[in-house]
Automatic annotation (TrEMBL):
Keyword Signal part of the UniProt annotation: yes
Domain (Imelysin-like) ranges: 45-330
Signal sequence region: 1-21
Pfam families listed in its UniProt record: Peptidase_M75
Coiled-coil region: none
This protein's name: Imelysin-like domain-containing protein
Protein's organism: Rhizobium sullae
The keyword Signal is annotated on this UniProt entry: yes
GO cellular component terms given for this protein: cell envelope
Subcellular location per the Swiss-Prot or TrEMBL entry: Cell envelope
Keywords, comma-separated and alphabetical: Signal
Length: 364
């Protein structure tokens, strides 16, 4: 027994090492990670939140102008400013980590999805009550998240009764909308302030290690950055598209689509995808790939391009977009969005050395 036990143990260990060597991807290029993180922070995240905050400030001004002079021209300018804010928010909303997740700031800016229509009922009830005390930024900031953000303002501008905004001066509906816009501007400003503090989160992200409050080492930092890409792509698939269209064998639910009233559904999704591609490109995430794995980067770029080429072909009217005649376009969008998630999570994640025993997909 004593003679063959060591031999058997040696054979088991040798087999284990061989199997592990065959399945283990190339090691993580840790030297490149700080530069990638710095570019993500300085060229994508910080500018993204600044653009959002500045757009929200323009929206607040446009809403105040509408309240002071309710004409078709001021209403059109307010709607244009709203569309602009949707775009800038949708670009940066893919970053669902960091300061925007503190104190429910994300939900204060965007309360979605609202599967049971709770937010809609709250907005309608507040408008019906029309209490002037509810139409200030401070009052809005203390209310339910469903009353604070972009979906509430969309209903003000595009929902039932929005025709009241023309021909009135300082009516309650408009004053409430202006307060919501001001609250969005304030919340975005808090996120900007957090990211702009030199010794705050930006320093923590740029210098992973013992002194960082976010990432113990470079691997944790790379994992978080990859997680933004994967979960951002999953949001487009799960909460933006599949929430109202799961495929031709399932009945569509167009009224579940985000921003369907303002016809910003596809514009928002386009901006989501642009935000993901901007992070991928400007942070230089392809630089973490080994030389022999560069085709994975090309495949990811191709998926991004296909999605961005597909969206403009979709009808802005979601009822029409989900009709039988248009479903082939949605099916193509859905298939490519799924392929993108697999490419980023499994292929790219594995190639840079982050796939051992962990799947980014669906939060596992």
């Amino acid at each position: 027994m004593r003679l063959w036990q060591p031999l058997l143990l040696s054979l088991v260990l040798a087999t284990s090492v061989t199997a592990q060597t065959a399945s283990t991807p190339a090691g993580l290029n840790e030297e490149a990670i700080p530069a990638v993180m710095a570019r993500a922070v300085d060229e994508v995240i910080r500018p993204g939140y600044r653009n959002m905050q500045q757009s929200a400030a323009r929206l607040t001004t446009a809403m105040k102008d509408l309240c002071d002079n309710g004409t078709q021209q001021t209403l059109d300018r307010a709607k244009s400013a709203f569309d602009d804010t949707i775009r800038y928010w949708s670009i940066i909303e893919i970053v669902q980590t960091g300061p925007v997740m503190h104190d429910n700031l994300f939900e204060h800016i965007l309360f979605f999805p609202d599967r049971k229509g709770v937010g809609l009922r709250q907005v309608q009830a507040l408008l019906a009550k029309a209490d002037p005390k509810d139409a200030t930024v401070d009052a809005i900031g203390g209310k339910s998240v469903a009353l604070q953000g972009l979906t509430a303002l969309e209903y003000v501008l595009y929902g039932n009764g929005s025709d009241q905004l023309v021909g009135q001066k300082n009516g309650f509906r408009c004053q409430f909308g202006a307060a919501v816009a001001g609250n969005i501007q304030r919340e975005a400003g808090e996120v900007v302030a957090a990211w702009e503090k030199p010794d705050g989160v930006q320093a923590s992200w740029k210098r992973p290690g013992p002194r960082s409050e976010d990432f113990m080492d470079n691997k944790e930092a790379a994992t978080a950055l990859l997680g933004i890409l994967v979960h951002g792509a999953e949001t487009v698939r799960d909460q933006r598209l599949e929430l109202f269209y799961k495929g031709r064998d399932t009945a569509p639910r167009p009224r579940m689509a985000i921003y369907w009233r303002s016809k910003n559904t596809w514009k928002s999704m386009t901006a989501n995808i642009e935000g993901l591609r901007t992070l991928w490109q400007k942070a230089g995430m392809a630089e973490l790939l080994p030389a022999d794995k560069k085709p994975i980067a090309d495949a990811i770029e191709a998926n991004f391009k296909t999605l961005l080429d597909t969206v403009p072909k979709l009808n802005p009217d979601i009822d029409v977009a989900t009709s039988d005649a248009e479903k082939a376009k949605l099916d193509a969008f859905l298939a490519t969005s799924r392929a993108l998630i697999t490419r980023i999570s499994d292929e790219y994640g594995g190639a840079i050395g982050l796939s051992a025993g962990f799947s980014f997909s669906d939060g596992d």
